[in-house]
Amino acid sequence: MELRNTHLPAERRQLILAELGSAGAVRVDEISRSFDVSEMTVRRDLDALEAEGLLERTHGGAIALKAVTGERRYRDKDEENREAKDAIGRRAAEMVGGGETVLINSGSTTRYVIRYLAHRKDLRIITNNVAAVAELPEDCEAEILLLGGRFRNASGCVVGDWAVRLLEDLAPSRAILGADGISLKEGVSSPIPEEAALTRLMIERTRGPVIIVADAAKIGKICGFRIVDLPEISELVTDGGADSHWVEDFAGTGVQVITAVQAGPDKP
Predict the structure, then answer these.
(1) 97-132, pLDDT tens digit by residue?
(2) Which residues on adjacent β-strands are paired with residue 238?
(3) Which domains does the chain have, with CATH numbers?
């Protein structure tokens, strides 16, 4: 972005939004040089745009803010960012110790977590992710307990009162949960009220760490139904595509950010 011209604030802010739309993130120092204005001016621009709900500020700039108003089908989401989700699933699975009872919710990223945990006979997995369980090989060794309830074909999971009643009797040692949206200010969210409510209950029932697994494309997204504020989670496992300033600010909330390394062509 090389725009060394004099612009009115409104024009400059529109150009900043255009850059955010293409790059996903902007830095205060880079914008300052591009427009030949002070960093204080840039910060005022970013603060004004954040007040309008058009971006999310980080300490060194801003990231694009994206509202999610509808639900995308599980099968469609599963086709996206597969390598990143695989790496995230593998890394999250490595964090689980022997003898644990792990609560896992619906989602295409948690599908990979379940896949990597399924071969371990020293674990119990409790999940509403029917689609992920249906794909497991016959030789899976982990004990898997499926929550009951109403099946949602769009997300490949079960929800509803039956699932809630079963959860109320559980005390898992760890939860590994997917999310459709993650925001510094709005926390973790979902576009589906029933899934948001069930995931919220999963967090309440967990007596140990709560881990969110999400690829970088989920960062800056805000869905219609909040699941939990950031201080309620322990770790975020994501891929290397997240903006470094956002990661730093996220870690400042007390959440440990773990970057999963994707396997290269010479790695298993």
Answers:
(1) 999 999 999 999 999 999 999 999 999 999 999 999
(2) 259
(3) 9-64 (1.10.10.10), 74-259 (3.40.50.1360)
